[in-house]
Amino acid sequence: MDSLKKSANEFNKNSFSFSNINQNDVRIDTPFYDRHNEAIVLYASEVNQKICLTDGGYILDDLEADGMLITQSREKLKILTEQLKAYSVKLNATTQELYIEIDIDSYPVKQNLLIQAMLFANDMFMLPK
Q: InterPro entries, alphabetically (predicted)?
């Protein structure tokens, strides 16, 4: 069973890449892929002594570029917000960012919740326009 833990630790160590953007912002490249088969990227920003993990607005902007206007449909927005709530993820309606506020101790779990929320939202392109 120790081999499972070792394998998971090696995966995390080798599959996530962290790049400093500036003093307060970090880009996190993940091993997970969106519907275009592109790696999911997160951003971590320190704001007022809190850390905010975000998709940078990518998911909803990408859907909008393909004609899926989630925020302009009450039904679709309701589906999205209910699912985001299940993942403890919030939506910034102005920037269209999916985000979650974290502390260092909760980072791994919150990162996974944000990625799951992003994948869910990304799959909403399958809903009828």
A: DUF1828 (IPR014960)
Query: Cα separation of 6 and 4, whole Å?
Result: 5
Q: How far is CA 44 from CA 6, 28, 68, 76, 80, in A?
A: 26, 7, 27, 27, 22
CB-based contacts of 58: which residues, under 8 Å, 6+ apart? 41
Closest C-alpha to 32, from 19, 17, 22, 47:
17
The per-residue pLDDT for range 72-105, each reduced to its tens digit, is: 889 989 999 999 999 999 999 899 999 999 988 8
**120 CB contacts (<8 Å, ≥6 apart)?**
83, 87
Q: What is the CATH number of the domain that holds 88?
A: 3.30.1460
Q: Where are the beta strands (DSSP E) in the chain?
A: 17-20, 25-33, 39-47, 50-54, 90-92, 97-102
Its domain, for residue 62, covers: 2-126
Give the pTM: 0.89
Task: State how many domains the chain has.
Answer: 1
